[in-house]
């Protein structure tokens, strides 16, 4: 019986040693990650790498906005030629139904042309009156549309993600260390009878605060990185919706689908970047002015100030304990 108890004690001691070794290794790894020399990548440098050049190609044809506009106008011209030929055939052979159909289709095609012209005019006006909000020279290109809204929203989101990444890693390291300290348990139990106590169990309050700040920091990092990536996807691929919408709208049987594609393009390519730019730069500060520390000029600075405030609070708690 005593031999069995001794073997169980040895196994328990071995398990405890393995657990402590694993926790120490995780702490050392976290400290190593926290002290790595991260490259100081700015949000502008990251986004300018996304929004320069032709981002994507289909059958070796770039999907940039000016190319999609050219294809859309070409599709409209081809459809006008087809409808004009149908009208000429109907007029020559006195086919009233074909004449009426051609007149109706010409009216719909003219409406589609007006939609495309309004979009082109919007892009041209935007490129003239919307200066780049960036401190560096704006990106130049032959596109009619100024990408300053995309750049502004992407830069702000990337700045939040890149700026809070060290803080998120730091909170992760602090949480790992505090969890390890909290789990230390001293047992004085000869023959499984005695006392056991955790001398540093009081750090559980700080551990919960650190865990909350860790979740907030990583949430901001991942959310804003996702926003920047989503903006790139919209910028690279959504001009295809303009071309598909124009083509489908010139065909009588797919006109409703064409209008839906044009609505998707306008909503995502025009409205969404403008709303994101306003929200990230102005709206967030006005909305959260009660919780953003003084001196916060953007969402990035507000989040950084809040994280710094939480870090100072943790340091104060640690000093008090």
What this model shows, in words?
This protein is mostly helical and 321 residues long. The protein has two domains: 1-37; 41-320, no CATH class. 75% of the residues lie in helices and 3% in strands. It is built from nine helices and four strands. It has helices at residues 2-34, 43-51, 65-92, 96-129, 148-183, 204-237, 239-249, 255-287, 299-320, and strands spanning 57-58, 61-62, 186-188, 195-197. The strands form two sheets. The chain has a two-stranded antiparallel ribbon with strand order 1-2. The chain has a two-stranded antiparallel ribbon with strand order 3-4. A hairpin with a 6-residue loop joins strand 3 (186-188) and strand 4 (195-197). Helix 1 packs antiparallel against helix 5 (148-183), helix 3 (65-92) packs parallel to helix 7 and helix 7 (239-249) runs antiparallel to helix 8. It is elongated. 26% of the residues are buried.
Question: What is the element layout, followed by pairings?
Answer:
Layout: H1 2-34, H2 43-51, E1 57-58, E2 61-62, H3 65-92, H4 96-129, H5 148-183, E3 186-188, E4 195-197, H6 204-237, H7 239-249, H8 255-287, H9 299-320
Antiparallel strand pairs: 1-2, 3-4
* Quaternary structure: single chain
Counted up, domains total 2
Structural class by secondary-structure content: mainly alpha
Termini separation comes to: 46 Å
Q: For the largest sheet, list the strands in their spatial order.
A: 1-2
Q: What is the mean predicted local confidence, pLDDT? A: 71
Could you give a short description of this structure?
With 321 residues, the chain is mainly alpha-helical. It has nine helices and four strands.
């Amino acid at each position: 019986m005593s031999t069995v108890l001794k073997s169980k004690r040895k196994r328990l001691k071995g398990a405890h040693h393995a657990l402590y070794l694993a926790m120490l290794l995780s702490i050392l790894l976290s400290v190593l990650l926290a002290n790595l020399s991260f490259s100081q990548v700015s949000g502008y440098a990251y986004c300018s790498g996304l929004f320069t050049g032709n981002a994507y190609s289909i059958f070796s044809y770039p999907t940039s906005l000016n190319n999609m506009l050219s294809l859309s106008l070409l599709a409209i011209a081809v459809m006008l030629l087809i409808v004009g030929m149908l009208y000429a055939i109907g007029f020559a052979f006195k086919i009233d139904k074909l004449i009426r159909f051609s007149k109706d289709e010409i009216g719909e095609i003219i409406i589609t042309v007006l939609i495309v012209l309004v979009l082109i005019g919007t892009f041209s006006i935007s490129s003239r009156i919307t200066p780049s909000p960036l401190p560096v020279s704006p990106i130049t290109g032959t596109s009619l549309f100024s990408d300053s809204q995309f750049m502004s929203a992407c830069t702000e989101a990337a700045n939040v993600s890149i700026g809070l990444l060290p803080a998120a890693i730091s909170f992760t390291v602090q949480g790992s260390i505090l969890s390890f300290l909290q789990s230390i348990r001293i047992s004085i139990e000869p023959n499984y009878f005695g006392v056991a106590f955790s001398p540093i169990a009081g750090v559980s309050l700080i551990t919960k605060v650190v865990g909350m700040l860790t979740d907030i920091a990583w949430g901001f990092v991942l959310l804003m990185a996702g926003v920047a990536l989503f903006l790139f996807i919209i910028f690279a691929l959504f001009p295809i919706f303009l071309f598909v919408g124009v083509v489908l709208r010139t065909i009588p049987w797919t006109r409703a689908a064409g209008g839906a594609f044009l609505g998707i393009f306008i909503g995502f390519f025009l409205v969404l970047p403008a709303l994101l730019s306003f929200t990230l730069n102005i709206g967030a500060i006005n909305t959260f002015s009660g919780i953003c520390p003084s001196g916060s000029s953007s969402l990035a600075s507000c989040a950084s100030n809040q994280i710094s405030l939480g870090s100072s609070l943790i340091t104060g708690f640690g000093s008090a304990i």
